[in-house]
Amino acid sequence: MNEREKISHLLRRFGLGAGKYEVDQYAPLGVEGTIDRLINYEKVDEKFPVNPYEMTGYGEEGLLMLDPPRFAAWWSLRLLLTQRPLQERLTLFWHNHFAVSGDKVFYGPSVLEYQQVLRRNASGNFRTLLHEVSKTPAMVFYLDAQMSVKGKPNENVAREVMELFTLGAGHYTEKDIQEAARAFTGWGIHYVDFGGQTPFEQIIDRCAREEKMALNFCDVPALHDSGEKTILSKTAKFSGDDVLDHLCAQARCPEFISHKLAKWFIEPPISDGLKTKLAKVMSESNLEIKPMLKVIAASDEFWSDANVLKRHRSPIDYYVAWFRQLGIQPVLLGLRGEVPNPYKPMKQELRGAAEGLLFLMSREGFLLHFPPNVSGWNWGEAWITTANMTARQTFPTMILRGDDTNRPISSMIAAKLINENRVTNEMEIVKHIVEIFDAHIPDAKLPILAEAVKKLGGVEALKDKEKASILLASLSGLMVATPEYQLC
């Protein structure tokens, strides 16, 4: 691979898509500079000033609508606009790892708080992340921790924290689960108007406007089983926090987490050598996440032929990448304008982009904040279904034709092809579109696409907005229908 191809690969796996315009942005940094900018994202201006409550809007009696999908739409917009793509890629990883669903957690600000905990700790310390996310009201409620009291411990938290969060199945006993469940007794949720008469909708509206949470984590000593417990061969008067620390101290924890993280960036199987190296790095760094990212990016496996362009596109890799590849971020932020009141609904053009992206992903079975179960989503080839492929093939027409008779997106692309790329024939149109959308179509198939462009009017068609939209939608539809396009 040449340097530009390597940067593209980095942006596909450590970013949110590689299209021409984003590669152009990173190319001056070189490969090492791109790795540094992606991983040390805290040094980068995110260029995402949108307040979550701009997405809420008003319902009955002028009250804010605070259901979880509002904040999922806000996250979709963030995926589209952010200049810190790895931070969001990692936040998605942890959302899949520490799965919480809005199907059960009905209070949207709690879902937002959980999301922000994942984002804030995405490349930080795993132990810190584990403690913080375990105490979010969203996680407490999702795993029924508030129902666990001395004498009647609920095993949900203990089971998931061992099986899914730290050790993996088969590395603990049922007795360990039972004993750990006693340690988590007393964890609960405090409601700010407990015992009051004010309707819940009014309370949460007031709290949102005062930048407070209506539901907060609490630890009630009177409900906690303070007796001795024996967990993973150690006997002590464990508290919930003690259990989390004890699990993090197990040799299995860095093995489990580092292997799962590696699979997020590299197509499995992961070699024993890399698994051992990553576990060692995580253990010796006191469970820091960022050092592992650097090892993964520098590994031979990350750059191997078995990994490059071998991953099946998830809805993130397909739809988020497509939107970002259009290079419309400055346009969307310009539409937002000045926002003196974050509780005033944002302009429909910007809201439509966020909600449209969320809808497109959800129709393939990926709805942010709504994982199918505690294990998160299935990845890889599971996304390549007949229904999903049908949806993907109709998507370019939806975007490039759509309901707006001004054809703004196709007109923008056509203008770039004419004025910036100065295309003179059908093959040049095809090659530029393939580059814009990071489509690795074999050379043997390009003449087929060029012939289709010729039948639709070629270069001359780009000068007419209606003909240009038909040409670009048809070309893009053929492009995304190829098997090669389903890999990234």
State the main characteristics:
488 residues, globular, two-stranded antiparallel sheet, mainly alpha, 4 strands, 53% helix, 24 helices
Strands of the biggest beta sheet: in what spatial order? 1-2
Give the distance, in angstroms, between the N- and C-terminal Cα atoms. 15 Å
Q: What is the tally of helical segments?
A: 24
Low-confidence stretches: none
Shape: globular
Order of helices and strands: HHHHHHHHHHEHEEEHHHHHHHHHHHHH
Q: What does this 3D model show about the protein?
A:
The chain has 488 residues and is mainly α. The protein has helices at 3-13, 20-26, 30-39, 68-81, 85-97, 108-120, 126-134, 137-142, 156-166, 174-183, 200-209, 240-248, 252-265, 272-284, 290-298, 315-325, 329-336, 348-362, 386-400, 408-419, 426-436, 446-455, 458-461, 465-480; strands at 187-191, 215-219, 229-231, 234-236. The protein contains 24 helices and four strands. The strands form two sheets. Strands 1-2 form a two-stranded antiparallel ribbon. Strands 3-4 form a two-stranded antiparallel ribbon.
Short description:
This protein is mainly alpha-helical and 488 residues long. Helix content is 53%, strand content 3%. The protein has helices at residues 3-13, 20-26, 30-39, 68-81, 85-97, 108-120, 126-134, 137-142, 156-166, 174-183, 200-209, 240-248, 252-265, 272-284, 290-298, 315-325, 329-336, 348-362, 386-400, 408-419, 426-436, 446-455, 458-461, 465-480; strands spanning 187-191, 215-219, 229-231, 234-236.
